[in-house]
Amino acid sequence: MSATATRRSATWAPDSHDFPTRRYDLVKEFVIALVVMLVLTIVAALVFSSPDDSALSLQRWAQEAPNDVVATATGELAGTTTTATYGPPYNTNADGQSLGPIVLPKLTGVTQPIDAADDFVITPLRTLSSDPAVAAALRQWSSASADQRTKWAQAYSDALAAAPDGDPAKVASGDYGPVPALAKGELALASSGALEGLLSSRTSFFGTDSTKPLLFLADGSYLEDQARVQNLGGDQWGIMNETGNYPGQPWLWLYAFWYQIPPFSTSDNADVQVWALMILLSIGFICIPWIPGLRTLPKHLGVHKLIWRGGRWR
Amino acid sequence: MSRTDPAAPMRAGSHDSWTRALSGWIEGLVPKGQWLPDRQPAYVASWIYVFGVACLASLVVVIASGLVLTFGGITWWHTNSFGHFVNSMHLWSVELFFATMVIHLWGKFFMAAWRGHRGMTWATGALAFFGSLGTAFTGYLIQTNFDAQWISTQAKDGLNAAGVGAYFNVMNVGQMVLWHVSFLPLVVGVIVGLHLLLVRRRGVVPPIGAESPVGVESPVAAEPSGASAPPETSGPGAAAAPPGAARPTAGVSAQEVGS
């Protein structure tokens, strides 16, 4: 017999059925485990309950941070917000993040088309036709060239940023065209509570798709301000936390961890890089039994001696 | 009229109909007597073994509480105190499920539980973990509260960057609800079922460094996978074992202890 033939596989183990046995009531063990888990769950639910901070409404946003609504609407018209400059799957205004030469969002393309200015501001405002100022502003906006629209909106956006507290009432005078009236109309729509429905029910009576109102809300700073108060920011391990003193999703700690350290914390392509790394690590984790070195690591760590103590099984 | 033996056709040929072939295949998945044995190897004597069954038990609580939540719809629990309590049960059973699963996984890692052609048992367990991550994540997305708003608007960037967001829109609550209550639980359920089947098929992995008490050694193999290594075919009960499975019923040869 050759030397190779006499060598055992790195993961050889004797047949478990050759060992001495003892009585073991699997069903009883499961029933006891079920009762224990049920009791633990009920006690935890009674004692700790569960967090439920109500969803932010666009109306609440308009009431608590009206200047942010105006600035966000103006940004949508200027094409400078996150959504307006996102790229796939919403538009073609950017390529999306790249992993070396590979740009995955470009491969999958635009599947949820969003024209930020039109979908978030202009189309909802058309429902305010009874407001003469808004109707006139919409006519002026529609008849202007794309360049002129951008100039007006960018100028007003800059003026808002320079105004104390971003207050539209304190903006320096300038050539802003219809943009102030449009932004003011958007604020009125949001304040009335109508904007949410106009954004979420454009494609369906039932409104089960919250993509547009959420993107519009996320384009402002109000949502993130509220989240940071609750320690939910990206640099606060936000994706694995939840509101209040609750455990959240601690099983996502490794995913959240990469965002806290270079090069990911400073990379423009952090999301796709972290995803690629996590997929590689996950495949490696699944394939441990077939990875030389890793598959025999537990034998050298010796923790198994704490589990199989005393040799009662011999 | 002569009496006929109902078992005769079975003996005559096990694969002369699709039904018999399927029946034979199902019976052969696990060695005879090992679907729900009342005995275990003596080395199964540590608290670490409890966490596998505890994980399974908490999964039952997760599914049951989730089913109750579905009766009222996704916003019911915001306005109904019983609904909020059930939601709390769902949350804490998920936390317990992951806690016990992680301990179970680490325990199996330190036991190198993939030894003896158990690689797929480990792989299905790891896949169940990742499937559960996705299922829990979609649960957070459909809470219809501030958490759901924040998590969905943050998570979209990673998914979009990976090209997944084009088809898996975390801000579409209707889509996420269906993923959370149908496809993902089905996937996790199938993987967990496969995992349990493999556990019963191979039996509980013996201790590291243990030799066979009856002097039976596995044929030698250069690689650990079930595909490349020949199945154990010698020793007590080998004739009844399905291909690649551990040999059945220990009662034939094993010295019984502790009974």
TrEMBL record, chain A:
Keywords: Membrane, Transmembrane, Transmembrane helix. The keyword Transmembrane helix applies. The keyword Membrane applies. The chain crosses the membrane at residues 30-48, 272-291. This is Uncharacterized protein.
UniProtKB/TrEMBL annotation, chain B:
It is an enzyme of class 7 (translocase). Residues 218-252 have a biased composition (Low complexity). Residues 22-208 form the Cytochrome b/b6 N-terminal region profile domain. It catalyses: a quinol + 2 Fe(III)-[cytochrome c](out) = a quinone + 2 Fe(II)-[cytochrome c](out) + 2 H(+)(out). InterPro entries: Cyt_b/b6_N, Cytb/b6-like_sf, Di-haem_cyt_TM. The keyword Cytoplasm does not apply. GO terms for biological process: respiratory electron transport chain. One of its GO terms (cellular component) is membrane. This is Cytochrome bc1 complex cytochrome b subunit. The lineage of its organism: Bacteria, Bacillati, Actinomycetota, Actinomycetes, Micrococcales.
